Amino acid sequence: MTGPRVDVWIPTRGRPIWCLEAVESALAQDGVDVRVVVAADGPEPELAALLARRADARVSVVAHPASRGRSATRNLAATASIAPYVAFLDDDDRLLEGSLGARVDALEAIPSAVLAYGRAVATDVEGRVREGARGTEPTRTTVRDGLEDQLRGRSLLPSTVCMRRAAFDAVGGFDEDLATGEDWLLFLRAARLGPFVDVGRPVALYRRHGGQLRGRHLHWISRNHRHTGARADARRTLRAAVRDDPSLVLHPKRLLRWIGALLGA
Questions:
Q1: 42, 12 in Cβ contact below 8 A?
Q2: Contact predicate 123/129, CB 8 Å
Q3: Torsion of CA 185, 80, 38, 212, to 10 degrees
Q4: For residues 90 and 11, is the Cβ–Cβ distance under 8 A?
Q5: CB neighbour list of residue 183: distance below 8 Å, 6 or more residues apart
Q6: CB 3.0–4.6 Å: which of 102, 125, 129, 174 could bond 182 by disulfide?
Q7: Contact at 8 Å (CB) between 141 and 196?
Q8: What does the DSSP 8-state code read for residue 84?
Q9: C-alpha radius of gyration, the chain, whole number
Protein backbone atom coordinates (compact mmCIF):
# COMPACT_ATOMS: atom_id res chain seq x y z
CA MET A 1 0.00 0.00 0.00
CA THR A 2 1.36 3.41 -0.94
CA GLY A 3 0.67 6.71 0.72
CA PRO A 4 1.38 8.25 4.13
CA ARG A 5 1.47 5.95 7.13
CA VAL A 6 -1.54 6.26 9.45
CA ASP A 7 -2.35 4.12 12.47
CA VAL A 8 -5.97 3.51 13.49
CA TRP A 9 -6.47 3.07 17.22
CA ILE A 10 -9.47 0.97 18.26
CA PRO A 11 -10.12 0.65 22.02
CA THR A 12 -12.45 -2.23 22.79
CA ARG A 13 -14.21 -4.13 25.50
CA GLY A 14 -16.83 -6.87 25.15
CA ARG A 15 -17.79 -6.23 21.50
CA PRO A 16 -15.81 -8.77 19.44
CA ILE A 17 -18.09 -8.84 16.37
CA TRP A 18 -18.51 -5.07 16.17
CA CYS A 19 -14.79 -4.58 16.77
CA LEU A 20 -13.97 -6.93 13.90
CA GLU A 21 -16.23 -4.84 11.64
CA ALA A 22 -14.36 -1.71 12.75
CA VAL A 23 -11.02 -3.37 11.98
CA GLU A 24 -12.21 -4.46 8.53
CA SER A 25 -13.40 -0.95 7.71
CA ALA A 26 -9.97 0.45 8.60
CA LEU A 27 -8.03 -2.12 6.60
CA ALA A 28 -10.20 -1.41 3.55
CA GLN A 29 -9.02 2.21 3.34
CA ASP A 30 -7.12 3.19 0.21
CA GLY A 31 -4.59 5.94 -0.51
CA VAL A 32 -2.80 5.46 2.81
CA ASP A 33 -0.44 2.94 4.41
CA VAL A 34 -2.77 1.85 7.19
CA ARG A 35 -2.04 -0.12 10.34
CA VAL A 36 -4.57 -1.00 13.04
CA VAL A 37 -3.88 -1.14 16.77
CA VAL A 38 -6.60 -2.89 18.74
CA ALA A 39 -6.32 -2.02 22.43
CA ALA A 40 -8.33 -4.28 24.73
CA ASP A 41 -9.55 -3.12 28.13
CA GLY A 42 -8.92 -6.47 29.74
CA PRO A 43 -8.79 -10.01 28.28
CA GLU A 44 -10.74 -10.49 25.02
CA PRO A 45 -10.28 -14.16 24.02
CA GLU A 46 -13.11 -14.23 21.46
CA LEU A 47 -11.81 -11.15 19.67
CA ALA A 48 -8.25 -12.47 19.78
CA ALA A 49 -9.43 -15.68 18.09
CA LEU A 50 -11.30 -13.75 15.38
CA LEU A 51 -8.29 -11.59 14.59
CA ALA A 52 -5.94 -14.58 14.63
CA ARG A 53 -8.09 -16.30 12.00
CA ARG A 54 -7.87 -13.19 9.83
CA ALA A 55 -4.06 -13.31 10.08
CA ASP A 56 -3.33 -9.81 8.78
CA ALA A 57 0.13 -8.49 9.61
CA ARG A 58 -1.23 -4.93 9.58
CA VAL A 59 -3.19 -5.61 12.79
CA SER A 60 -1.58 -5.61 16.23
CA VAL A 61 -3.30 -6.25 19.56
CA VAL A 62 -2.35 -4.89 22.97
CA ALA A 63 -4.30 -5.47 26.16
CA HIS A 64 -4.50 -4.54 29.80
CA PRO A 65 -4.48 -7.59 32.11
CA ALA A 66 -7.59 -6.13 33.80
CA SER A 67 -9.98 -3.33 32.98
CA ARG A 68 -8.58 0.18 33.45
CA GLY A 69 -11.15 2.25 31.59
CA ARG A 70 -11.55 3.83 28.18
CA SER A 71 -8.92 6.57 28.48
CA ALA A 72 -6.17 4.25 29.67
CA THR A 73 -7.05 1.84 26.87
CA ARG A 74 -6.81 4.56 24.25
CA ASN A 75 -3.44 5.61 25.64
CA LEU A 76 -2.34 1.97 25.55
CA ALA A 77 -2.88 1.99 21.77
CA ALA A 78 -0.43 4.89 21.54
CA THR A 79 2.34 2.76 23.02
CA ALA A 80 2.12 0.37 20.05
CA SER A 81 1.95 3.05 17.37
CA ILE A 82 4.67 4.87 15.43
CA ALA A 83 2.84 6.55 12.53
CA PRO A 84 2.95 10.34 12.04
CA TYR A 85 -0.85 10.33 11.75
CA VAL A 86 -3.33 8.59 14.06
CA ALA A 87 -7.05 8.05 13.59
CA PHE A 88 -9.42 7.25 16.42
CA LEU A 89 -12.12 4.63 15.85
CA ASP A 90 -14.51 3.34 18.50
CA ASP A 91 -15.16 -0.40 18.40
CA ASP A 92 -18.86 0.06 17.56
CA ASP A 93 -18.23 2.42 14.60
CA ARG A 94 -16.91 1.94 11.06
CA LEU A 95 -14.92 4.08 8.65
CA LEU A 96 -16.42 5.01 5.31
CA GLU A 97 -14.53 4.27 2.11
CA GLY A 98 -11.74 6.74 1.39
CA SER A 99 -12.26 8.67 4.62
CA LEU A 100 -8.74 8.20 6.01
CA GLY A 101 -7.13 9.31 2.77
CA ALA A 102 -9.31 12.44 2.65
CA ARG A 103 -8.29 13.49 6.14
CA VAL A 104 -4.60 12.71 5.73
CA ASP A 105 -4.58 14.62 2.42
CA ALA A 106 -6.06 17.62 4.24
CA LEU A 107 -3.35 17.50 6.91
CA GLU A 108 -0.63 17.14 4.27
CA ALA A 109 -2.01 20.15 2.40
CA ILE A 110 -2.32 22.36 5.51
CA PRO A 111 0.83 21.94 7.65
CA SER A 112 -0.50 24.22 10.39
CA ALA A 113 -3.58 22.05 10.99
CA VAL A 114 -3.61 19.91 14.13
CA LEU A 115 -6.30 17.48 13.09
CA ALA A 116 -8.80 16.78 10.32
CA TYR A 117 -12.33 15.55 10.79
CA GLY A 118 -15.57 14.93 8.95
CA ARG A 119 -19.14 14.03 9.73
CA ALA A 120 -20.58 10.87 11.24
CA VAL A 121 -23.63 9.19 9.75
CA ALA A 122 -25.88 7.52 12.33
CA THR A 123 -26.86 3.88 11.94
CA ASP A 124 -29.15 1.57 13.88
CA VAL A 125 -27.83 -1.15 16.16
CA GLU A 126 -27.42 -3.48 13.15
CA GLY A 127 -25.21 -0.94 11.42
CA ARG A 128 -27.78 0.16 8.84
CA VAL A 129 -27.93 3.82 7.89
CA ARG A 130 -31.20 5.29 9.06
CA GLU A 131 -33.64 6.52 6.44
CA GLY A 132 -33.24 10.26 5.98
CA ALA A 133 -30.02 10.34 8.01
CA ARG A 134 -28.40 13.76 8.10
CA GLY A 135 -24.87 14.58 7.05
CA THR A 136 -24.58 12.30 4.03
CA GLU A 137 -24.08 15.06 1.44
CA PRO A 138 -20.56 16.45 0.88
CA THR A 139 -19.76 20.12 1.41
CA ARG A 140 -16.61 22.17 0.98
CA THR A 141 -13.45 21.75 3.04
CA THR A 142 -12.97 24.47 5.65
CA VAL A 143 -10.19 25.43 8.04
CA ARG A 144 -11.37 26.78 11.37
CA ASP A 145 -10.31 27.62 14.88
CA GLY A 146 -11.58 24.67 16.89
CA LEU A 147 -11.33 26.38 20.26
CA GLU A 148 -14.70 28.16 20.22
CA ASP A 149 -16.62 25.00 19.32
CA GLN A 150 -14.87 23.04 22.05
CA LEU A 151 -15.55 25.73 24.65
CA ARG A 152 -19.24 25.65 23.66
CA GLY A 153 -19.36 21.90 24.25
CA ARG A 154 -19.52 21.02 20.56
CA SER A 155 -16.97 18.26 20.79
CA LEU A 156 -15.88 16.11 17.88
CA LEU A 157 -16.84 12.46 17.68
CA PRO A 158 -13.52 10.59 18.07
CA SER A 159 -14.28 8.21 15.18
CA THR A 160 -14.32 11.18 12.79
CA VAL A 161 -10.87 12.50 13.76
CA CYS A 162 -7.42 11.98 12.25
CA MET A 163 -4.70 13.76 14.22
CA ARG A 164 -1.00 14.43 13.97
CA ARG A 165 0.82 12.14 16.38
CA ALA A 166 3.05 15.02 17.45
CA ALA A 167 -0.04 16.99 18.50
CA PHE A 168 -1.42 14.02 20.46
CA ASP A 169 1.85 13.74 22.36
CA ALA A 170 2.02 17.51 22.90
CA VAL A 171 -1.35 17.57 24.72
CA GLY A 172 -0.46 14.58 26.89
CA GLY A 173 -2.90 12.02 25.47
CA PHE A 174 -6.22 11.16 27.10
CA ASP A 175 -6.80 12.08 30.74
CA GLU A 176 -7.10 8.74 32.58
CA ASP A 177 -8.72 10.34 35.63
CA LEU A 178 -11.93 11.05 33.69
CA ALA A 179 -14.69 8.47 33.29
CA THR A 180 -16.18 10.47 30.41
CA GLY A 181 -15.38 13.70 28.60
CA GLU A 182 -11.77 12.69 28.00
CA ASP A 183 -12.12 13.13 24.23
CA TRP A 184 -13.59 16.63 24.64
CA LEU A 185 -10.70 17.61 26.90
CA LEU A 186 -8.14 16.22 24.43
CA PHE A 187 -9.62 18.20 21.54
CA LEU A 188 -9.93 21.31 23.71
CA ARG A 189 -6.21 21.14 24.45
CA ALA A 190 -5.43 20.39 20.80
CA ALA A 191 -7.36 23.48 19.66
CA ARG A 192 -4.73 25.63 21.37
CA LEU A 193 -2.03 24.23 19.06
CA GLY A 194 -3.55 25.18 15.72
CA PRO A 195 -6.61 25.04 13.46
CA PHE A 196 -8.84 22.08 12.68
CA VAL A 197 -9.80 21.04 9.13
CA ASP A 198 -13.35 19.97 8.31
CA VAL A 199 -13.04 17.84 5.16
CA GLY A 200 -16.69 18.46 4.36
CA ARG A 201 -17.77 14.86 3.91
CA PRO A 202 -19.03 11.94 5.97
CA VAL A 203 -16.15 9.82 7.22
CA ALA A 204 -17.62 7.32 9.68
CA LEU A 205 -20.72 5.31 10.50
CA TYR A 206 -21.79 5.95 14.09
CA ARG A 207 -23.77 3.08 15.61
CA ARG A 208 -26.47 4.18 18.04
CA HIS A 209 -27.29 1.69 20.80
CA GLY A 210 -28.22 1.48 24.44
CA GLY A 211 -24.67 1.06 25.70
CA GLN A 212 -23.59 4.60 24.89
CA LEU A 213 -22.90 7.33 27.42
CA ARG A 214 -23.59 10.39 25.27
CA GLY A 215 -26.21 11.78 27.67
CA ARG A 216 -23.88 11.62 30.66
CA HIS A 217 -21.05 13.04 28.57
CA LEU A 218 -23.23 16.04 27.66
CA HIS A 219 -24.22 16.44 31.30
CA TRP A 220 -20.53 16.58 32.25
CA ILE A 221 -19.97 19.30 29.63
CA SER A 222 -23.02 21.20 30.93
CA ARG A 223 -21.63 21.13 34.44
CA ASN A 224 -18.33 22.60 33.24
CA HIS A 225 -20.16 25.38 31.39
CA ARG A 226 -22.05 26.18 34.61
CA HIS A 227 -18.82 26.31 36.62
CA THR A 228 -17.30 28.79 34.17
CA GLY A 229 -20.39 31.02 34.20
CA ALA A 230 -21.55 30.16 30.64
CA ARG A 231 -25.16 29.67 31.71
CA ALA A 232 -26.74 29.73 28.25
CA ASP A 233 -24.37 27.01 27.04
CA ALA A 234 -24.95 25.04 30.25
CA ARG A 235 -28.71 25.09 29.67
CA ARG A 236 -28.35 24.11 26.01
CA THR A 237 -26.12 21.10 26.69
CA LEU A 238 -28.20 20.03 29.70
CA ARG A 239 -31.34 19.93 27.54
CA ALA A 240 -29.48 17.79 24.99
CA ALA A 241 -28.20 15.50 27.77
CA VAL A 242 -31.66 14.84 29.17
CA ARG A 243 -33.06 14.19 25.71
CA ASP A 244 -30.46 11.43 25.34
CA ASP A 245 -30.74 10.07 28.89
CA PRO A 246 -33.93 11.06 30.77
CA SER A 247 -32.71 9.21 33.88
CA LEU A 248 -30.37 12.15 34.53
CA VAL A 249 -33.26 14.11 36.06
CA LEU A 250 -33.89 11.47 38.74
CA HIS A 251 -31.26 13.07 40.99
CA PRO A 252 -32.88 15.95 42.97
CA LYS A 253 -30.19 18.53 42.12
CA ARG A 254 -30.24 17.56 38.45
CA LEU A 255 -34.03 17.83 38.42
CA LEU A 256 -33.81 21.40 39.73
CA ARG A 257 -31.23 22.28 37.06
CA TRP A 258 -33.41 20.71 34.36
CA ILE A 259 -36.41 22.75 35.47
CA GLY A 260 -34.21 25.85 35.43
CA ALA A 261 -32.98 24.98 31.94
CA LEU A 262 -36.57 24.63 30.70
CA LEU A 263 -37.49 27.98 32.19
CA GLY A 264 -34.31 29.63 30.97
CA ALA A 265 -33.55 30.73 34.52
A1: no
A2: yes
A3: -10
A4: yes
A5: 88, 155, 156, 158, 174
A6: 174
A7: no
A8: S
A9: 18
d(CA 167, CA 238): 30
Taking the CA of residue 164 as centre, how many other CA atoms within 13 Å lie in the half-sphere pointing to its CB? Answer: 22
Q: How far apart are CA 115 and CA 146, in angstroms?
A: 10
Q: What are the tens digits of pLDDT across the range 59-99?
A: 999 999 999 998 999 999 999 999 999 999 999 999 999 99
Q: Is the dihedral of CA 25, 162, 158, 232 positive or negative?
A: negative
Sign for the pseudo-dihedral over CA of 150, 170, 161, 240: negative
Residue 210: the pLDDT is 58
Secondary structure (3-state) at 239: helix
Predicted TM-score of the model (pTM): 0.79
For residues 259 and 244, give the distance between their C-alpha atoms in angstroms, rounded to a whole number.
Answer: 16
pLDDT tens digits for 208-264?
A: 765 545 666 677 677 777 777 787 887 787 777 776 666 565 555 555 665 665 566
Helix 231-244 and helix 252-263, axial crossing angle in degrees, nearest 10: 120
